[in-house]
Each structure stands twice: as structure tokens, then as C-alpha cells.
């Protein structure tokens, strides 16, 4: 891998966001951009993407990107009008769920959104995924806070509150400007902010399964299925997409995540991958570079 920048445990959320800021500019110009947080369970993906959304210093990339977008929209006299909408998709065990569907219960919203990835002329999209019109950064942060409560978490050896699903938060920004010739120019950009589920090796995962009896067996089987689905989709993403973005045949079909994001992958749109490493992975990297 080639890294454009490297951050340490002392780097601030603000510093990390500077890597992503140019993508906000792209979106304001009407382009599509994607940020992935990719790494082993417990290495800080959710911390990096969401952080503590109510704390100025600790808030992560999502709240900072939202604020940067609304700041741009507020530039005096630049836009005649604008509209922003947000959606939040969860992919768990290769099933799609809408994290922003209110009123209806969680099970129902899952049922509705489930398995509806289908193709249309313009690409692949999640059918029935709700889009929420938002007027301010505070509106978006409110939606995120509610979504966080619905996200599937579980305990892994390395993280007590581990995200067991991939989450794709998407902001769609439409702006209208008047050109010097007096015409109106409309553009629509999209920013996908993806917090991936954490990978976990079988040996480590087995260590976290305790107890006996048929209930424990069923729970263990469910955990194994979850772990395999997570690892399979991360493998496709890491091995085939991030390593060889210009390769002609990327197996997008191997996972719902890559299928849904195929427009943004393969070098067609601006993409930033934030790889988070555990202390033991860092030690291996360091000793390898010393050798
Ligand atoms: N740079 C950091 N500074 C302070 N705390 C951090 C940092 N990175 C991670 N943490 C803390 O470590 C714990 C695990 O981080 P987090 O949940 O973000 O990991 P994750 O990679 O998203 O894990 P998973 O894939 O299992 O969901 C959290 O309590 C988080 O607040």
C-alpha cells in the first residue's frame, strides 16, 4: 500500500479531517466522493468517522463534513438556492436496512429495505431507502444520533461496542447558481461516508465465545456467520478494489457493499480510504520497515 498521509494516536480529529476536506469541495462542484474507514475491529473506525458528535474537539469526519458543506452553502451570494438530503444505509449479513426510518419499528423498516438492491439504468441503488431533507448541520447531527441507536453492535475481543455492520451515510447536495451569462446552472454532488464493520480473525473470535448449551451454540453460529460475511466483503474491498482500482474486472457482485458503491469505486470518483491499525499491526509494520 502507498499512503498519502500517516497519522498517529496523537493526531487530532481536526487534522484527520483535513485529508477529507478536498472531497467536500468536489461534492460542492457536483461530483461524487467517498470516504471509507477500513481496519481491524477496535482500531478506531467509528471514532474517526463519527467521534463524539456533540464535542467540538472529538467530533469525527461525518459531523465535520456536514458542517463544511453547510458553511459552503452559506457563502454569501454564491448560490441562488440549494437543497441537502441525507440517507443512512446499514448492511448487515448482506441485508440492507434503513437507519433513518422513524415511526415504523426497527424490524419493519429492516423488512422493507431488505434485499432491495436492484439495478436501473443509472446504476445500483437501495430501493426504498429514505432520503431526509435537511436545512442545517444540527438537523443532520440529530438524524445521526438517532441512527447510532439503531446500528447493530456486539462485543468482540478487541471492542466492547463493536459495529457489526457496514454503514453508508450519504449526503446529496443540489445547488443552483446564476452564471455571468444570466443562465441558471444546477449541480448535484454526493458524499458517501462509510464506516465499515471491523474484521476479526477466527482465532481471536473463537476466544470471545464462552459458555455452553444449545443457546450458546446458536449464538456462536450466528456470530460465525456474521464474522464470515464481514470478512468476505472486506476482503473483496481490500484485495480487489483498494489494491487494484484500475483492474478491468472487479468482482463487485461479491458483496452488496461493493455493488452499491461501484460508481464510486474503481477510480471513477474521488475516494479516500482511512486505514486504521492496531498497536500490534503497527509493531509489525515498524519492524518490517526496520528490516
Ligand atoms: N484515536 C483515538 N483516540 C481516542 N480514543 C480512541 C481512538 N481510536 C479509538 N478510540 C476508542 O477505542 C474504542 C474502539 O474504537 P472504535 O469503536 O472506533 O473502533 P472500530 O474500529 O470502529 O471497531 P469495530 O470495527 O469493532 O466497530 C472506542 O472506545 C474509541 O472511543
UniProtKB/TrEMBL annotation:
<feature type="domain" description="Kinesin motor">
    <location>
        <begin position="1"/>
        <end position="291"/>
    </location>
</feature>
<keyword id="KW-0505">Motor protein</keyword>
<dbReference type="GO" id="GO:0007018">
    <property type="term" value="P:microtubule-based movement"/>
</dbReference>
<keyword id="KW-0547">Nucleotide-binding</keyword>
<dbReference type="GO" id="GO:0008017">
    <property type="term" value="F:microtubule binding"/>
</dbReference>
<comment type="similarity">
    <text>Belongs to the TRAFAC class myosin-kinesin ATPase superfamily. Kinesin family.</text>
</comment>
<feature type="binding site">
    <location>
        <begin position="39"/>
        <end position="46"/>
    </location>
    <ligand>
        <name>ATP</name>
    </ligand>
</feature>
<dbReference type="InterPro" id="IPR027640">
    <property type="entry name" value="Kinesin-like_fam"/>
</dbReference>
<keyword id="KW-0493">Microtubule</keyword>
<dbReference type="InterPro" id="IPR027417">
    <property type="entry name" value="P-loop_NTPase"/>
</dbReference>
<keyword id="KW-0067">ATP-binding</keyword>
<protein>
    <recommendedName>
        <fullName>Kinesin-like protein</fullName>
    </recommendedName>
</protein>
<keyword id="KW-0175">Coiled coil</keyword>
<dbReference type="GO" id="GO:0003777">
    <property type="term" value="F:microtubule motor activity"/>
</dbReference>
<feature type="region of interest" description="Disordered">
    <location>
        <begin position="205"/>
        <end position="224"/>
    </location>
</feature>
<dbReference type="GO" id="GO:0005874">
    <property type="term" value="C:microtubule"/>
</dbReference>
<dbReference type="InterPro" id="IPR001752">
    <property type="entry name" value="Kinesin_motor_dom"/>
</dbReference>
<dbReference type="GO" id="GO:0005524">
    <property type="term" value="F:ATP binding"/>
</dbReference>
<dbReference type="InterPro" id="IPR019821">
    <property type="entry name" value="Kinesin_motor_CS"/>
</dbReference>
<dbReference type="Pfam" id="PF00225">
    <property type="entry name" value="Kinesin"/>
</dbReference>
<dbReference type="InterPro" id="IPR036961">
    <property type="entry name" value="Kinesin_motor_dom_sf"/>
</dbReference>
